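Shipment paperwork, digital attachment
Item: protein structure file
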Amino acid sequence: MKFEVKSQFVQKDVYEFQRVAAKTVLRGKTRASKTVFFIFAALFLLFGAYIGITNNEMTTAIGGLIAAVIICIPALVYDRFISWSSWMRWRRANGRAEMIYAFSAESFTEQVGDRPPFTNKYSDLYACFENKNYFFLFFSKREGYMLKKSDFVQGEPAKFRKFVEKQSDGRIQFYTVSDGK
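Attachment content:
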């Protein structure tokens, strides 16, 4: 059995990939990054309030409050910023190139536009997820493929999950993640 997927990704697709990565393989990193921003914001707030109260300077206390609010902003928009940043890197590297993913019993390849194909082994897979519209194949916490179910030109998406699980000798299982809004 063979599968082939041909896609041209748009910003919405890359955002969905980042959203799923943040909810799954990057879960701890995303929380840690947001926590660091909030800790620094709390420190600025406390330090500004302490200096302002002990030295009777309202300007310093207000400055600490303003700095705390400014530092909280990246934590509040962290997911959107990472998604936007990923889209900009994707667009710079790939433009509107067609992505072709081909899966056979022995291995699978990725070809971007006119570049030579890159071959992977099923043993290289780290984790796999799916939702209503996509399959997500991760090789690490930072690298993976996204396959649009609507872009399968060979093979049926309904059979793809079982195929990959079988080719990885049962080491890999697909997990369902919620769809983006």
